Design the sequence.
């Protein structure tokens, strides 16, 4: 009892010095709170993976009993077996993803990896062999690779093999943000390539990315990977509701 009280006292002392703050509201975190977000801010994250979603693209299904949305029903020869997003790309989750990607908030990686892990345990447990990130565009100014850092943390958490040397971006492209669906498709056409093909034979792949908008990025990745592996699935942190 005394030992436990002492640990709490030490934690409070460290907080007063290092200012451990919630990355959402910036309030000081209590010793019993998560180190990344306070409980109030965690409640602001809109989870969708536990809702009725399309088992192909992860879109919310608002009407009907089918587990495949209308768009996926009409789309033939999809290379991605299943895609699921943790939440909607809005509000606090959107703000945190932007901080992680562009403001070097490395401390968010544990929180995001837990999100990916929760989706994995619900949909893909014991159904994946290798985890890979959507490739990093090395010509864009970044001090680290946010998606690979997330894959690495998640892979260790789930006990899965993770690779960064399978899928790569062979040409730099403008950011997808703000582009129409047609321009997104043409922007990434031929941008990805595969190496170390022998590692893929008979393997079930899981691709990790941050945001799913139209699915163009994942589609282009899957198109070049599918001839060499057994199956492809994907998890993203957030999905843009279109």
Sequence:
């Amino acid at each position: 009892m005394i030992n436990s009280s002492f640990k709490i006292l030490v934690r409070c002392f460290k907080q007063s010095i290092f200012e451990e703050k919630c990355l959402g509201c910036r309030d000081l975190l209590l010793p019993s709170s998560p180190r990344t977000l306070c409980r109030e801010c965690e409640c602001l994250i809109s989870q969708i993976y536990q809702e009725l979603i399309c088992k192909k693209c992860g879109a919310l299904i608002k009407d009907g009993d089918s587990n495949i949305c209308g768009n996926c029903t009409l789309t033939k020869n999809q290379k991605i077996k299943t895609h699921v997003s943790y939440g909607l790309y809005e509000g606090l989750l959107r703000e945190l993803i932007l901080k992680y990607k562009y403001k070097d908030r490395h401390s968010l990686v544990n929180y995001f990896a837990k999100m990916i892990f929760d989706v994995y345990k619900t949909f893909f447990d014991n159904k994946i062999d290798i985890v890979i990130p959507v490739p990093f565009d090395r010509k864009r100014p970044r001090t680290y690779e946010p998606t690979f850092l997330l894959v690495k943390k998640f892979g260790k958490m789930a006990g899965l093999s993770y690779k960064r040397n399978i899928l790569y971006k062979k040409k730099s492209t403008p950011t997808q943000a703000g582009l129409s669906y047609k321009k997104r498709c043409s922007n990434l056409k031929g941008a990805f390539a595969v190496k170390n093909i022998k590692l893929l034979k008979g393997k079930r792949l899981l691709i990790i990315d941050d945001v799913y908008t139209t699915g163009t990025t994942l589609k282009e990745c899957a198109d070049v990977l599918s001839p060499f592996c057994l199956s492809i699935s994907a998890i993203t942190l957030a999905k843009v509701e279109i």
About this structure: The longest strand covers residues 204-212. Residues 13-44 form one domain. The chain has eight helices and seven strands.
